[in-house]
């Protein structure tokens, strides 16, 4: 059976929610493997809108197992609230339908405070984070002082873990002018939330490996986008996890052989939230138009997204680092009505042509995009369900994208509605 990983191939917000929902109908298990509630996935199922941040998209469909893997960082208070909200919408969530890896790190209130304190300093340290404590929690994970789901089950262990974390955090907070953490209050908050989290705790690595042996289909649901990857993104303006497809294995406890197909989600233009390099950013009317037509406001923070032309050079790069087998191209309809479209095919750096974005920040800053121009189309592509519904120029644009990124289109999404999708290849097909 084929298992599929879905990853964003740009800076996030590529429209993963719809595709993941579409694929989750065909899957038995849906697993998150990185990130946390910095993500925002909007699903429209039978006319009902669900906004998910920490929960895997599979929860809204009956008969599926949803999994939060160890590669995720989890805010337990947020999760309990999100579960309550989704239950109010009529969705059933039980320990049989949702499992959380016992080794998942917990985001605690002081992680969010630290994140926001650093961002609020308005200094060179600013990243433009979602302020949800994602970075500080991952720091604690690699610093070997994080509190994990399993620690909630034993009071003595929990106290030890909290003390270990506070040695570090109280020193750090003093430097930032923050009050020390109230240890007893934190412990009582953790003891209070524990019974609401622990019923979902499970050895996820074992469950998933058993599911795989039983021939079940697993969908690995990525969050953010490959250009926000901690190693391969536009560092330091990135998120704190590995976002690329390889993380699906380490973030759940499966071998790399468990991944049969990698689907990259690619928007027909480019957007980015937060600080950092963006070679094809448009600060003119065209950028404004992309933002308005594409409703480019963050699901999690409501921030306006920066918009620009499609950067084939960067997507070729992310398709390589994630081993993308096929892409789902989204929001093509946002380009309707542009007289001319531009695609970035490479960069010029100090008189030389580059076919990738260099790593060094000073070189990135000196890179100017090399554009190829294509004629636009005046017809609407919104809601197209077959190639025959698309104007010839739109098909040419899609074909050129495929050529430039060296990866075929598997799915073409032409509106937020599930049915408005052109299927070229089913990622789950063996
Ligand atoms: P953090 O993940 O909150 O630490 O934020 C780090 C960077 O990743 C910032 O530029 C955020 O705007 C960006 N980011 C985090 N999550 C998302 C997402 O789901 N979509 C788009 N950008 C994101």
Q: Explain this structure to me?
A:
The chain has helices at residues 16-24, 76-88, 109-120, 134-142, 155-176, 183-197, 204-213, 247-250, 285-293, 312-321, 361-366, 392-405, and strands at residues 4-8, 29-32, 41-45, 48-52, 65-68, 98-101, 201-202, 218-221, 261-267, 270-272, 306-308, 310-311, 326-330, 340-349, 352-354, 368-375, 409-413, 421-423. It folds into three domains: 4-102 and 200-258, Adenylosuccinate Synthetase, subunit A, domain 1 (Adenylosuccinate Synthetase, Chain A, domain 1); 109-197, Adenylosuccinate Synthetase, subunit A, domain 2; 266-429, Alpha-Beta Complex (Adenylosuccinate Synthetase, Chain A, domain 3). With 430 residues, the chain is α/β, with parallel strands linked by helices. It is globular. A hairpin with a 7-residue loop joins strand 17 and strand 18. The strands form four sheets. Strands 7-6-5-2-8-1-9-13-17-18 form a ten-stranded mixed β-sheet, sandwiched between helices. Strands 12, 14, 15 and 16 form a four-stranded mixed β-sheet that branches. A two-stranded antiparallel ribbon has the order 3-4. The chain is built from twelve helices and 18 strands. The longest helix has 22 residues, at 155-176. Residues 11-13, 38-40, 127-130, 132, 134-135, 223-224, 228, 237, 239-240, 273-274 line the site of inosinic acid (IMP).
């Amino acid at each position: 059976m084929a298992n599929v990983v879905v990853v964003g191939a740009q800076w996030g917000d590529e429209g993963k929610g719809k595709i993941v929902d579409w694929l989750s109908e065909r899957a038995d298990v849906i697993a998150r493997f990185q990130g946390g509630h910095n993500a925002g996935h909007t699903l429209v199922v039978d006319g009902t809108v669900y906004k998910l941040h920490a929960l895997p998209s599979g929860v809204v469909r009956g008969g599926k197992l949803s999994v939060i893997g160890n590669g995720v960082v989890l805010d337990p208070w947020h999760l309990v609230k999100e579960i309550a909200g989704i239950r109010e919408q009529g969705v059933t969530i039980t320990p049989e339908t949702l499992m959380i890896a016992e080794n998942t790190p917990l985001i605690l209130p002081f992680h969010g405070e630290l994140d926001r304190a650093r961002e609020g300093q308005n200094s060179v340290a600013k990243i433009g984070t979602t302020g949800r404590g994602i970075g500080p929690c991952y720091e604690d994970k690699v610093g070997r002082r994080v509190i994990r789901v399993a620690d909630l089950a034993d009071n003595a262990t929990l106290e030890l873990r909290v003390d270990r974390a506070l040695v570090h955090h109280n020193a750090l907070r003093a430097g930032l002018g923050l009050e020390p953490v109230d240890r007893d209050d934190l412990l009582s908050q953790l003891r209070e939330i524990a019974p609401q989290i622990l019923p979902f705790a499970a050895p996820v690595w074992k469950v998933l490996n058993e599911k795989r042996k039983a021939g079940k289909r697993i969908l690995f649901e990525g969050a953010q986008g490959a250009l926000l990857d901690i190693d391969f993104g536009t560092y330091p303006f990135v998120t704190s996890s590995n976002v690329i497809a390889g993380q699906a294995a380490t973030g759940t406890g499966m071998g790399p052989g468990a991944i049969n197909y990698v689907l990259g989600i690619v928007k027909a233009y480019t957007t980015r939230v937060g600080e950092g390099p963006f070679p094809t950013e448009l600060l003119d009317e065209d950028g404004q138009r992309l933002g308005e037509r594409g409703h480019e406001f963050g699901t999690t923070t409501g921030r306006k997204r920066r918009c620009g032309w499609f950067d084939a050079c960067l997507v070729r790069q992310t398709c390589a680092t994630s081993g993308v087998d096929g892409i789902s191209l989204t929001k093509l309809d946002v380009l309707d009505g542009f007289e001319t479209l531009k695609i970035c095919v490479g960069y010029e750096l100090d008189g030389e042509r580059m076919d990738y974005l260099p790593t060094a920040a000073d070189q990135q800053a000196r890179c100017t995009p090399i554009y190829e121009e294509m004629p636009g189309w005046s017809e609407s592509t919104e809601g197209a369900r077959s190639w025959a519904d698309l104007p010839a120029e739109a098909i040419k644009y899609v074909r050129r994208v495929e050529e430039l990124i060296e990866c075929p289109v598997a799915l073409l999404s032409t509106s937020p509605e599930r049915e408005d999708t052109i299927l070229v290849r089913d990622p789950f097909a063996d």
